[in-house]
Design brief:
Length: about 475
Amino acid sequence: MKKPVLTTAGGHPVSQNQHSLTAGSRGPLLMQDMHLVEKLAHFNRERIPERVVHAKGSGAYGTFTVTQDITRFTRASVFAGIGKTTPTFLRFSTVAGERGSADTERDPRGFALKFYTDEGIWDIVGNNTPVFFERDPLKFPDFIHSQKRDPRTGYKNPIRMWDYWSRAPEAMHQITILFSDRGIPDGYRYMNGYGSHTFSLWNNGGERFWVKFHFKSMQGIKNLPPEKAAQLAGSDPDYAGRDLFEAIEAGQFPRWKMMVQIMPELDAERQSFNPFDLTKVWPHNEYPLQEVGILELNRNPENYFAEVEQAAFSPANVPPGIGYSPDKMLQARLFAYPDAARYRIGVNYQSLPVNRPLNQVTAYHRDGGMRFDNNGGRVDNYEPNGFNGPAQDESVTEPPLRIRGDAFRYDAHRENDDFTQAGNLYRILTGEERERLTDNIAAAMRGVPAEILRPNIEHFLRCDQDYGLKIAAKVGIKL
Ligand code: NDP
């Protein structure tokens, strides 16, 4: 079969792609070899800024199918009736490592799920953990700095991590999950996903319900022992991405059961814990999990850069029937995620094939860098207008949100208990799991001075006496 002709980016046939243009066979290059210049200039620009967090990732397309009716809670079209299907794209990631880092690090895993619904994109930008290290976004950049590289040496430094955590007791719950067996999942197929934040559902009757989203792996939970993970970090740093890709290529489509916990709007005021605090779960016995549907991943991307690296997710993307909540971390992410995508990919990132909705977009935004679609064509660019252009639809108005309280910088520690739920997790672990958890913590504390360890151990003691005592013994701190 005849090969197609190679062209420049401008579409000109290329006469020679192996030999540069030179003055004489041993002579210097000529500046006018514009094919060479274009090739090198484009190559220099192949990388876009990597994500500051969640840089290393893998993704796949799939289908979400409704199995149980929750239309009494929400008008969202994605849930409109048993059997309804919606196309999806899911990007998994590690958090702290750079784009070339190993998949088998001890780290939370990102679980960023895009639904291409009939009424626009819905993104659940979650993790494999139901909680997070922080509840106040003002602390997020400091927290991430402390976990990333030492500004002087360029190395990761456990002293900085534990120094930060000694001053952040709200991290205890997530620390306990991170250092438990689930801190190193055996690839992406064998872990759960969680929306983590509290979101809301609202129905056409004007009722609002608070909701937590859970995705339970139907492959079961499988984790890697730390020694095996360390070995894989050297021999197969792309282990998790490869496992996902190869399973899908082989027709072994991974599945997750989507479940929700639902809280009536006014219950939030009666709870002893703050249901909008990202360091807390809603206990299952008070808010039981209800099945909603099945998520299946069944198609690999054709091009990693176009579809995985350029994928952009934002918890701000919600269709009518789904809403936000007062969770401070969620509120900040509503701004931070689209802001990061505009910086990383460009202002028109939502028009890229992996990011754009399947329904028609009729916004009046125009222009901006890399506007590669028809830019709204001949439709005029202001609203309201007299030319019958796209107009608002008040039938998708969210019910009003009740808010009360004085604007103030509230110290959440005064009204919060940072230790009970972390202790609850410790107490449901088996004896062997507790040993491994405390071994992992002790190993991560190696080289950290006693004056930094002591306040940390104080926190573990407050979660559960046995938890703190075990760690103290393993790191050789006398109490
Ligand atoms: P339950 O006993 O009803 O639920 C315990 C949950 O813990 C189960 O969902 C189980 O997941 C999960 N789990 C088991 N081992 C680990 C681990 N190493 N890391 C993370 N999760 C694990 O109790 P409660 O609802 O009262 O919660 C008790 C504690 O369980 C919480 O403080 C929290 O740390 C943890 N948890 C709670 C969740 C919730 O939404 N309530 C969700 C996840 C964890 P599985 O069923 O898949 O085995």
